[in-house]
Amino acid sequence: MENQQKTALITGGTSGIGKELAKLFAKDQYNLIIVARNVGELDSTKNELQTSCIQVTTIAKDLSDLEQVKALCTEITTPVDVLVNDAGQGVYGLFKDNDLERELDIVKLNISATVILTKHFLKEMIARGEGKILNLGSVAGKLPGPWQAVYHATKAFVLSFTTAVREEVKDSGVTLTALMPGVTDTDFFNKADMNESKAVQDQEAMADPGDVAQAGYNALMAGEDRVIAGFKNKIQVNAANFMPDSAVAHQLYEQQKPVGQEQQNQNN
């Protein structure tokens, strides 16, 4: 296959949507470079995806540490044909109550790491005249999100950034695509301490990460600018376009508040 010698670099590639994307690239015989923090998860993912046809390289980095992000850029000497900026985190709770340092780490991971990696590998792709970049946005990037104010704001950045840079390089042979999932069945909500949210309680409404990854993969390969994964999410985003931001924020406040708080309000 013509893709056999191509390489995809995937951050956050050991779980959730990132791992499902890694599986799709492996199926199409891309060599993989997978970056995550947990060495055990990296080893497990490598053992799962490694075949005689592809090479899987794992690199342990904490991408909320920007010096480690920069080090990653210098460590990778193999030409990267596809960059997937999947790594991201959120934190649940009211902004006034959340830990500042944790929120700043989220900004570094979701925004700064994406900027650093995109700039580095984009330059190399432009020099070669080809390449693809997939940035993990979210429908959250189109919706002001109380209870996740910082996370939603970081995803708004990702969408704006991806769209702007895509326009800048439209004649270079390089494309940038934003994948916009909604609530997806991954470990994101557990890590964000968000299990008490109304939005997470309805397990049946969660999207399958494999389906989300496939939508993103198809859009990336087709060179599309962005894809909203899931029919319900498309409806929600389109509806929000016709509402004042303040009304959207109120709607999200009600959707994402803790279940216990709603029950308490009903009792009152």
Task: Explain this structure.
With 268 residues, the chain is an alpha/beta fold. The protein has one domain (7-267): Rossmann fold (3-Layer(aba) Sandwich), CATH 3.40.50.720. The protein has eleven helices and seven strands. Strands 3-2-1-4-5-6-7 form a seven-stranded parallel beta sheet, sandwiched between helices. α5 links the parallel β5 (131-136) and β6. The radius of gyration is 19 Å and the shape is globular. The chain starts with 6 loop residues before the first strand and ends with a helix. It comes from Mucilaginibacter agri. This is SDR family NAD(P)-dependent oxidoreductase.
What is the structure about, briefly put?
With 268 residues, the chain is of the alpha/beta class.
Strand content: 5-15%
Give the neighbour order of strands across the main sheet. 3-2-1-4-5-6-7
How far apart the termini lie comes to 65 Å
Give the low-pLDDT segments: 262-268
CATH secondary-structure class: Alpha Beta
CATH superfamily: NAD(P)-binding Rossmann-like Domain
Q: Which topology does CATH recognise?
A: Rossmann fold
How many strand units? 7
What Rg is obtained from the alpha carbons, in whole angstroms? 19 Å
The backbone outline, from C-alpha atoms, is: globular
Number of helices: 11
For the record, the count of structural domains works out to 1
Largest sheet: 7 strands, parallel
Residues in helix, %: 40-55%
Alpha-beta content class: alpha/beta
- Reported CATH architecture: 3-Layer(aba) Sandwich
The overall pLDDT average reads 87
Order of helices and strands: EHEHEHEHEHEHHHEHHH
Pfam families: adh_short
Protein name: SDR family NAD(P)-dependent oxidoreductase
GO molecular function: oxidoreductase activity
Organism: Mucilaginibacter agri
